[in-house]
Automatic annotation (TrEMBL):
Record-linked Pfam families: TAXi_C, TAXi_N
Active-site residues annotated for this sequence: D145, D344
Domain Peptidase A1: 127-456
Protein family membership: Belongs to the peptidase A1 family.
Signal peptide bounds: 1-21
Protein name as it appears in the record: Peptidase A1 domain-containing protein
Annotated keywords: Aspartyl protease, Disulfide bond, Hydrolase, Protease, Signal
InterPro entries named among the record's database cross-references: Aspartic_peptidase_A1, Aspartic_peptidase_AS, PEPTIDASE_A1, Peptidase_aspartic_dom_sf, TAXi_C, TAXi_N
Amino acid sequence: MASIPKLVILLLCTCLHTLLAHGGDDLRTYKVLHAGALKSATVNCSQPQVTPSSGGVTVPLHHRHGPCSPVPSKKAPTLEEMLRRDELRAAYITRKYSGVKGGAGDVEQSDVTVPTTLGTSLGTLEYLITVGIGSPAMTQTMLIDTGSDVSWVQCKPCSQCHSQADSLFDPSSSSTYSPFSCSSAACAQLRQSHEGNGCSGSQCQYMVKYGDGSIGAGTYSSDKLALGSSAVNNFQFGCSQSESGNLLEDQTDGLMGLGGGAQSLATQTAGTFGKAFSYCLPPTSSSPGFLTLGASTSSFIVKTPMLRSSEVPSYYGVRLQAIRVGGRQLSIPASVFSAGSIMDSGTIITRLPSTAYSALSSAFKAGMKKYPPAQPMGIFDTCFDFSGQSTINIPTVSLVFSGGAVVDLVSDGIILDSCLAFAANSDDSSLGIIGNVQQRTIEVLYDVGGGSFGFKAGAC
C-alpha cells in the first residue's frame, strides 16, 4: 500500500479539527472573521484589485471617512451617531412609501401626495466621487446618493456655505456655464418634481430640503461635467448659494444624485452611456471602490427584477424573498416580504420586516453559541463579546431575491462592531431597505433600461 504524503495527512487533520469545532457543519456554512478587522483604524489607503464591468466610464469611489477619502474628515462620527442618523433616514424613506399602494413594487397612480423633502440627514451618506465641472474643469468632490435626484455643488458667490476642501465652483470662470431661465423646459420639470423655488432675475431657482431640516438653495444651471476621461455636456445641477442647518458637516462640495428621477446623473447620461450604472462599495474605509456609468449588463449572471413606483420615482425597488443562515433557508412565510424593499446607497443598515429579522437573529445566535452575548447598541440588539478572540467563526448569511438571485454577504456585511448588522422594522407592513453595509465588495448593477438589478461578488 502506497504511503500517504505527510502534507495530505496534515490537511486532513486540519479539516477534521475544523469540522469538529463546528459540530460537523459544512465548512461553507461559516466565515472566518479576524477580530482586528472589527475596530480597524488603518491609516493607509490600500489599493486592492478592483474589477469593474466593461463598458461606459468608471470613476474611483471612496468612503468619506478614512485614509482613502480625497477630503478626509478631521473627526469621524461614532458608530452610535451614525446609527442614530441612519434611523432618521430609514424612517423618512418608510414614511415616503407609507401612502403608496403596493409599496416599492407599485407602478399604478394613486392619490398620495409625495412630500417635497428629498431625503433625510446627509450625515448618512458615506461614499464620494471626484468630478470636474466647467470649462476649464474645476475639481468637485461629491457624495453619491441613489435616493436623490437633484445634484448640486456650492457656488460663488455664496451667502451661507459650509467650508470645503476644494475651491468653490465659480460660474463666472466657466465658458460653458449657463443658468436656466424660468421659462425653460428644465425649470418646468423641476417645478413638476417639487424642487423648483421660483425665479430670481428671470433665472430658475431650486431648493432641496432634507429630513433633518437642512436646506440648500440657489440657481438651477447647466455646465460641462468631466467624469474620468469622458465628458457630459449640458449637465443639469444646482448652483447652491445658501444653506441652512447642517447640510454637510465635512469638507465635501456637494451631492451627486443617482436616483431614478428626471434630474439625476443616471437619467441625464442615459443617452450617452445607456440606461445602466453600477458601483462597488469597498469593505472598509481603507480601500477604494468604483462607480461605472454605462455598465455592461451582459457580464452579470445573478439578476433580479427592478421594481419602480410612479409615485416615488427616485428609489429603486427590489423583492427580497428569503434569507439563508449557515446555508439553510429560514422558515419565513413569503407574505412577510410583501411590502417590498429598496436598494439604497445612502442607508447604512439593512431594514427587515420584524418577523424576518426575528428569524435571522435567532438563527444567527444559534450559530454563535460559543460567544457570550453583549449589550445592545442603538438599533443593534444581537451583539456578542469577542474579548480575547483573535479569529471569530460567524455563520454565513445570504439574501435571496425574486427570480432566485442569491447574494452571499461578506463578513464585513454581516457583523459590524461585534453586532449583527441588520435592524428590524416596527412591523411586517413597512418598506424594507437593503443598506450599504450589506452591499460591500459586491458590484451592484442598476440596469434601469432592462428593469433589473445585477450582483457580482468580490469586485472591490
